[in-house]
Design goal:
The structure is a single chain. With 93 residues, the chain is an all-alpha fold. It has 3 helices and no strands. Helices cover 66% and strands 0% of the residues. α1 runs parallel beside α3 and α2 packs antiparallel against α3.
C-alpha cells in the first residue's frame, strides 16, 4: 500500500551513489541495462545489428580521441570518454 504526502519534497543528488565507483564500472552497468532493454523489445537479428553498429561507433570514437591527443593535451573529460568507449567496444564485440 502506498502513501501520498503532498508536502514532501525530493532532492536528487545526481550520481552521488556512484561517485567513488570507477567510470568503467558505471558505464558497464548502463550498457548492461541497455542490452537488457534491447533483449526485451527487439529480435536477436536486430540486436546483432545494433551491437555491430555501436561497436564500430565506439572504435571510431576511440580512434578519433587518440588522434586528437596527438595535437591537444588529453584532459580528464577526454580520458573518461576514452574509457567509456573502450567499455562499449568490448561490450558490443
Amino acid at each position: 500500500m502506498g502513501y501520498f504526502i503532498p508536502a514532501a519534497h525530493l532532492i536528487h543528488l545526481e550520481g552521488q551513489s556512484e561517485r567513488t565507483t570507477p567510470h568503467a564500472a558505471v558505464f558497464e552497468k548502463k550498457l548492461r541495462g541497455e542490452l537488457l532493454f534491447y533483449t526485451k523489445h527487439y529480435s536477436p537479428k536486430i540486436i546483432q545489428r545494433i551491437k555491430r553498429i555501436r561497436g564500430i561507433e565506439a572504435q571510431w570514437r576511440i580512434a578519433c580521441l587518440w588522434l586528437a591527443a596527438l595535437f591537444v593535451r588529453e584532459d580528464e573529460m577526454k580520458r573518461t570518454k576514452r574509457i567509456k568507449y573502450a567499455v562499449a567496444a568490448r561490450r558490443y564485440r
